[in-house]
Amino acid sequence: MTPILAALVVLMYHRVAPDVPKNPVGLQLTVAPASFSAQLDLISRERLRVYTADDAAQRIARGEHLDGVVLTFDDGRIDGYDVIFPMLERRGMHATFYVNSSTIDGPFHMTWRDLRALRAAGNEIGCHGHEHVDLSTLDEAQQRYQIEHCLDRVQQHAGARPRTYAYASGRYDATTRALIRRDGFEAAVTEIPGEVSPGVDPTQWPRRRVDRDTTLEQFAALVEPARSNHH
Length: 231
Ligand SMILES: [Zn+2]
What we know:
This protein has 231 residues and is α/β, with parallel strands linked by helices. The protein has helices at residues 24-29, 33-45, 53-61, 79-90, 112-120, 140-158, 174-182, 216-223, and strands at residues 8-13, 15-16, 30-31, 50-51, 68-74, 96-99, 124-127, 164-166, 187-189, 208-209. Helix 4 links the parallel strand 5 and strand 6 (96-99).
């Protein structure tokens, strides 16, 4: 039997919170804390390696073949600090938080102080654009503004230059990818389903979506490629 080469599975979350939003999109993006807890416990039990996107990208650039998971949380909502952070801390796990620099310190979103605390604990703060806009609808100057304003503000207020990027709504074009490379990002994540394996374009990392309806059984199947063949 040919061994299947294990791969890196990048998981995409938005919110983890006890509330039940009324609008269907918000509801779908809000994972119940009990479900999230069971998912993290499964990762621990299966002894899957957990990387930040930044750490994974640096290792891949050095030629390492990685297996494991990356936990990513888009949009910088307040539960990133209030709910997700303590649940990760309890298990010694680190994650990547993709934020829009225009909404930090605003209603329902984390503050710069929260982001500094996340970072000090070993988490990564990545860019999701200055505003939450579809970059593929913008010209080059507007795209530059969205990417570089986020880069500059996060660097200035969170204390480290962001090294990875998440395209808002998963949308981008060739201009976006050229800017991402030029601005020195090590990786950019999409919403294309799949795993990160050797040879994947660093400006187009696939991600697997986890939402409210994801059962533990489905979650186990999502992270299955992250299982190393060594155990
Ligand atoms: Zn988003």
